[in-house]
């Protein structure tokens, strides 16, 4: 069944947990889609886990469109959300609508995600008015890393917690269909989830959110630069990959690969003429 923004909202009403993962390419997205995952975010985490940057700030619109289009080609049922990169929506409402539109027209995303609270509510209103569904993102929003002074958990102090709750209400009022809550205390995730009527998708925001999202390389043990506390490794795919690559090296070195069944033949009379 195709997941839509309506099925996301219905899941909250039905108290069914939503599952999301990130993906950045066709074959991973196709594999993920076959599992019944509800949503795939083409996150700007692309910059860190695929492109090797230290943060997400260098990711461009062209990077995001290229990868979102690849993911979308592999997906039939999951809701595909394209992540708006740093400076593609902050400077003006015009930029925000124009760039959000590119995710739909050029990459065929089902929705877009952007980071921020009240500061970006005008952008969200205008994007939704242009008929593009918007997922919000609050808490430890990675594009604000320099303002936070590092990747630090947000919402522990009273004023910060109140601001995040207020921002969540503003995003709902602006027309967002869902909100990612990242790197906040579980109890704050619970309060926000109970306060707003749109689904919250948590990453490091505890178990009371309406759904969860993780970066797939983190949860499959494929990214070793650092592992945040909120990540659980559900499989050690990195080890399995290394094992396969080592076997390949060994067999090529020994001359065992390629074997007869991996090779093409030609007619004997043609072969003779080549000598
Ligand atoms: O870019 C990303 O992958 C994200 C998720 C971590 C929510 O924003």
Automatic annotation (TrEMBL):
SUPFAM superfamilies: Phosphoenolpyruvate/pyruvate domain (SSF51621)
Primary localization: cytoplasm
Cellular-component GO terms for this entry: cytoplasm
Domain of life according to the entry: Bacteria
Name of the top EC class for this enzyme: transferase
Binding of 3-methyl-2-oxobutanoate, residues: 44-45, 83, 113
Active-site positions on this chain: 182
Keyword Nucleotidyltransferase among UniProt keywords: no
Cell compartment(s), UniProt: Cytoplasm
InterPro entries for this protein: Pantoate_hydroxy_MeTrfase, Pyrv/PenolPyrv_kinase-like_dom, Pyrv_kinase-like_dom_sf
Gene Ontology terms describing biological process: methylation; pantothenate biosynthetic process
Cofactor(s) required for function per UniProt: Mg(2+)
EC number from the UniProt entry: 2.1.2.11
Residues reported in the UniProt entry to bind Mg(2+): 44, 83, 115
Family to which this protein belongs: Belongs to the PanB family.
Its biological purpose: Catalyzes the reversible reaction in which hydroxymethyl group from 5,10-methylenetetrahydrofolate is transferred onto alpha-ketoisovalerate to form ketopantoate.
Identification of the protein by name: 3-methyl-2-oxobutanoate hydroxymethyltransferase
Organism taxonomic ancestry: Bacteria, Bacillati, Bacillota, Clostridia, Eubacteriales
């Amino acid at each position: 069944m195709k997941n839509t923004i309506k099925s996301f909202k219905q899941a909250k009403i039905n108290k069914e947990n939503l599952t999301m993962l990130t993906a950045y390419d066709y074959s991973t997205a196709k594999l993920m889609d076959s599992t019944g995952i509800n949503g795939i975010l083409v996150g700007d985490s692309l910059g860190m886990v695929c492109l090797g940057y230290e943060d997400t700030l260098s990711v461009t619109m062209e990077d995001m469109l290229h990868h979102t289009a690849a993911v979308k080609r592999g997906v039939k049922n999951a809701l595909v959300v394209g992540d708006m990169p740093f400076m593609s929506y902050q400077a003006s409402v015009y930029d925000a609508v124009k760039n959000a539109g590119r995710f739909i027209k050029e990459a065929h995303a089902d929705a877009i995600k952007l980071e921020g609270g009240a500061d970006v509510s005008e952008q969200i209103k205008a994007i939704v008015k242009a008929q593009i569904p918007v997922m919000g993102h609050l808490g430890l929003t990675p594009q604000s890393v320099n303002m936070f002074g590092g990747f630090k958990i947000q919402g522990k102090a009273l004023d910060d917690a109140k601001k995040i709750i207020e921002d969540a209400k503003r995003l709902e009022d602006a027309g967002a269909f869902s909100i990612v809550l990242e790197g906040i205390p579980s109890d704050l995730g619970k309060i926000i989830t109970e306060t707003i009527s749109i689904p919250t998708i948590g990453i490091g925001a505890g178990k009371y959110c309406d759904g969860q999202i993780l970066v797939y390389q983190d949860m499959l043990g494929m990214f070793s630069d650092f592992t945040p506390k909120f990540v659980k490794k559900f499989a050690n795919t990195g080890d399995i990959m290394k094992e396969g690559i080592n076997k390949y090296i060994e067999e090529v070195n020994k001359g065992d690969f390629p074997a007869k069944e991996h090779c093409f033949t030609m007619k004997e009379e043609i072969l003779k003429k080549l000598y």
